[in-house]
Prior knowledge:
Strand content: 35-45%
Distance between the termini: 46 Å
Strand order of the largest sheet: 1-2-8-3-6
GO molecular function, one term: oxidoreductase activity, acting on single donors with incorporation of molecular oxygen, incorporation of two atoms of oxygen
CATH architecture: Sandwich
Number of helices: 2
Binding site for Fe cation: 40, 42, 81
CATH superfamily: Jelly Rolls
Largest sheet: 5 strands, antiparallel
Number of strands: 8
Helix content: 10-25%
Low-confidence stretches: 113-120
InterPro entries: CDO_1, RmlC-like_jellyroll, RmlC_Cupin_sf
Keywords: Dioxygenase, Iron, Metal-binding, Oxidoreductase
Family: Belongs to the cysteine dioxygenase family.
Order of helices and strands: HEEEEEEEEH
Amino acid sequence: MLPRCCAHLMSWDGGPRLRTGHGYEVWLLSWVPGQGTGLHDHGSSSGVLTVLEGTLTERTLKGRRVLGTGAQRVFAPGCVHQVVNDALEPAVSLHVYCPGLTEMPTHTTPPARRARSRAR
């Protein structure tokens, strides 16, 4: 269940940004079943993703990781990943970026394929 402190902030219309400040940005994201990002990185920003409700799947160069409620992922600039709700129930996640996002470059090569190409 979504924490009461956040429930009134949740919007299923795709409006992600919750708060910005000097040197940071906070996003509260909703994910319907099957919804996900493309492959992307966060430019020069570092970040942390926390699953508040539901289950998300993160795909990176190192493989696939299922993130349940309460799970966190910390990432540095240049980390390429994809986040998807592969579950049958909606999910909610909180993302903090430092500094705030100024770019989110997309990538076309799947993480697993890119790793195999580098090994050759």
